[in-house]
């Protein structure tokens, strides 16, 4: 069974864990709030946007390579977006934090840079290359902006085309 090839604009989806800081309920008030630091999970919703092939296109769209990059979709890292402080979940308090649970509306992600993804080292076709660089395939793992450096938290889906496949 072959795999579809990834092109510019194809979606990258997954989950990143980020360091956060903000406030939470103080377990020994007053005051009513206390500093919170820890980690939380955030949805990564982006697309393949940069460092694509300048030589090979499919349906007019540049083919993605293992040297390509993804970025968050517009608004994802802005207030109200899915990759902004208040949108996280599965929060784990860090060492020494006073508040044991956060107040999500106060949270900010402290990791930088935020939003960029690169194909995982295991991604790409073993058979098909462009200029000696492996072509990215549907379902390949992407290392997104996880603040703890955990690899392969996201995958890319070939939605931009449905007729060119690679068997290796």
Coarse morphology: elongated
Rg from alpha-carbon coordinates: 19 Å
DSSP strand count: 14
Q: SSE order in H/E notation?
A: EEEEEEEEEEEEEE
Computed structural class: mainly beta
Name the helicity range: under 10%
Q: How many helical stretches?
A: 0
Question: What is the structure about, briefly put?
Answer:
With about 170 residues, this protein is mainly β. It contains no helices and 14 strands.
Explain this structure to me?
- This protein has strands at 3-4, 11-25, 33-50, 57-58, 61-62, 69-72, 89-93, 108-109, 118-119, 129-130, 133-134, 141-143, 154-156, 165-166.
- With 168 residues, the protein is mostly beta strands.
- The strands form 4 sheets. Strands 2, 3, 6, 7, 8, 9, 12 and 13 form an 8-stranded antiparallel β-sheet that branches.
- The mean pLDDT is 93.
Features:
38% strand, eight-stranded antiparallel beta sheet, 0% helix, mainly beta, two-stranded antiparallel sheet, elongated, 14 strands, 168 residues
What is the fold's blueprint, element by element?
Layout: E1 3-4, E2 11-25, E3 33-50, E4 57-58, E5 61-62, E6 69-72, E7 89-93, E8 108-109, E9 118-119, E10 129-130, E11 133-134, E12 141-143, E13 154-156, E14 165-166
Antiparallel strand pairs: 1-14, 2-3, 2-8, 2-13, 3-6, 3-7, 4-5, 9-12, 10-11, 12-13
């Amino acid at each position: 069974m072959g795999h579809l090839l990834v092109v510019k604009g194809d979606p990258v989806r997954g989950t990143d864990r980020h360091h956060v800081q903000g406030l939470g309920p103080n377990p020994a008030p007053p005051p009513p709030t206390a500093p919170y630091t820890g980690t939380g999970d955030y949805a990564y919703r982006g697309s393949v946007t940069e460092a694509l092939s300048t030589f090979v296109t499919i349906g007019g769209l540049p083919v993605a390579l293992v040297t390509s990059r993804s970025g968050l979709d517009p608004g994802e890292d802005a207030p109200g977006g899915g990759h902004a402080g208040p949108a996280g979940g599965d929060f784990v308090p860090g060492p020494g934090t006073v508040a044991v649970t956060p107040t999500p509306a106060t949270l900010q992600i402290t990791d930088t840079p935020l939003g960029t993804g690169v194909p995982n080292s295991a991604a790409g076709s073993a058979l098909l290359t462009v200029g000696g660089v492996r072509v990215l395939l549907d379902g390949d793992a992407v290392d997104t902006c996880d603040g703890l450096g955990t690899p392969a938290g996201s995958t890319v889906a070939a939605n931009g085309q449905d007729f060119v496949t690679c068997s290796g």
